[in-house]
Design a protein that fits this description.
Radius of gyration: 26 Å
Structural class: mainly beta
Number of domains: 4
CATH architecture of the largest domain: Beta Barrel
Number of helices: 7
Oligomer: single chain
Shape: elongated
Helix content: under 10%
């Protein structure tokens, strides 16, 4: 797919199923005294490509497989019967309160409209001034939508990427043995800060690929993609013929086994691809292997070991530990010939060790924008965000009178340790009071912690 959907269009496509297999509501309620007289595939077969109002007394019986609870659907439900799936456009928010995933619905179609958006068929309430099918007005819900039993199971269709076709449109599918391409590993699903939808590429071990599209409004938009291989549930969709998958929540992503070819990532792109190949024991990095990134550590304030350089690129970050003190400064673009060196961990912190000074070369300058995150998000994503810059808003720091040693940053979502070396130039400086913005490097010393470079610039 060569272009992004408008935000509202992306939200239209996003569909869902049971949030996870452990908090499904108990089966309850009862069905209305109503009988379905047509199936979804028969309804959709009547569509010829031009918006049409349904004039027949058709009643369909469907199961809700996607609601708006996770923020991935906007004023719509994804519904499915045994023959097909379709999108139901509704003019109201918080639809999950009445129409949760797993609830059976009976829908009287007479008077509603059927159309499509970029090839995906949908049902709405009327034809707007632009000739498009628009949402069913909330005042008309009770005339067309009748609630039935809730808490029913939603079972995905198990297929492979090569088997997917338009017959799966708007159905919940399950793919096994899939993984994100290495250039997308560790990148956020979407841009939740600017509310921009993003495509990531999923692949299998047979060379098949398909896009995973995520709305910038999704609750998991700012979460990074996983590095492993495994199972993924999603709604199959398309945009003008370009196939795409729309996951419903991170509970649908179970990529926790060995990638195609072995390892978590073997020869992966960028810094994250390299660091993800560390599986708990030392790894000799194969040659040739070159990484390039921007220096985010600052040895001049001594809160970083003078032999250590923290390097970050667009995929992630890593500690480069030289055999002697280095002279690189923040903003330097540095290229490291890592082939033949050792990938290791020191008290949990992944690093390239015993790096000779000749292996690293300054190639230019650049900047890294800190990731805006809460303490809770940093703790949840520490493995992927390790050795990258983050910024925490409206937080306090306490636990000591000065910066020296371990203190605690608290932003109301959680508490994160901060560590200051005794050799740091600001070690004896008093801690700031009140709410502040903290910028620092995500680190690890037998547990996640933050390292500020210099309070004069990193604490505002």
């Amino acid at each position: 797919m060569k272009k992004l959907l408008p935000v509202f269009a992306a939200l239209f496509f996003l569909a869902g199923c049971i949030k996870d297999n452990f908090d499904a509501p108990p089966v309850g309620g009862k069905d209305p005294d109503m009988t379905a007289n047509i199936t979804l595939d028969s309804v959709k077969a009547r569509y010829t490509g031009t918006p049409m109002q349904i004039t027949q007394d058709w009643v369909i019986k469907v199961l809700v497989v996607g609601d708006d609870k996770e923020g991935n659907l906007y004023q719509m439900l994804a519904v499915e019967d045994s023959t097909a799936g379709i999108a139901l456009k509704l003019d109201r928010s918080s639809l999950y309160a009445d129409y949760p995933v797993g609830r059976r619905l009976f829908i009287k179609l007479k008077g509603l409209w059927m159309g499509d958006y970029a090839g995906v068929i949908q049902i709405g309430g009327y034809l707007n001034s632009e000739g498009e099918v628009d949402n069913i007005p909330s005042a008309a819900f009770d005339q067309h939508i009748f609630k039935g039993v809730y808490g029913l199971p939603v079972v995905p269709h198990v297929v492979s990427i090569s088997q997917l076709n338009e017959s799966y449109q708007n159905k919940l599918i399950e793919l096994n043995g899939v993984e994100f391409q290495t250039s997308d590993v560790g990148k956020n699903y979407a841009d939740g800060y600017n509310k921009v939808s993003v495509n990531r590429t999923l692949k299998d071990c047979n060379g098949g690929t398909i896009l995973v599209r995520t709305s910038g409004y999704a609750s998991f938009a700012n979460s990074p993609t996983d590095a492993g291989n495994g199972k993924l549930l999603a709604i199959y969709s398309s945009y003008n013929g370009d196939a795409q998958l729309l996951i419903r929540s991170l509970n649908d992503v179970m990529l926790d086994t060995t990638r195609c070819g072995g390892g978590v990532i073997i020869g992966g792109d960028g810094i994250l691809g390299l660091r993800a190949s560390y599986g708990g024991s030392d790894v000799t990095i194969p040659s040739p292997k070159v990484i390039k990134g921007i220096v985010i550590s600052d040895a001049s304030f001594a809160n970083t070991d003078p032999k250590n350089m923290v390097l970050q690129d667009s995929t992630g970050g890593i500690v480069v530990r030289f055999t002697s003190n280095h002279s690189f400064v923040p903003g330097d673009e540095v290229e490291v010939n890592a082939g033949g060196l050792t990938l290791s961990a020191y008290n949990g912190l992944v690093q390239i060790t015993n790096v000779p000074g000749s292996a690293a070369t300054k190639t230019g300058t650049g900047t890294i924008t800190p990731r805006l995150a809460t303490v809770a998000q940093i703790q949840a994503n520490a493995n992927v965000w390790e050795s990258t810059l983050v910024r925490i808003l409206n937080a306090t720091i306490s636990g000591s009178a000065t910066w020296s040693g371990t203190t605690q940053i608290n932003d109301g979502t959680g508490i994160l340790n901060h560590f200051t070396r005794s050799a740091a130039t600001f070690s004896a400086t008093a801690l700031p009071s009140g709410n502040k913005t903290f910028t620092g490097i995500v680190s690890n010393f037998n547990g996640v912690q933050l390292n500020i470079r210099n309070p004069a610039t990193d604490v505002q």
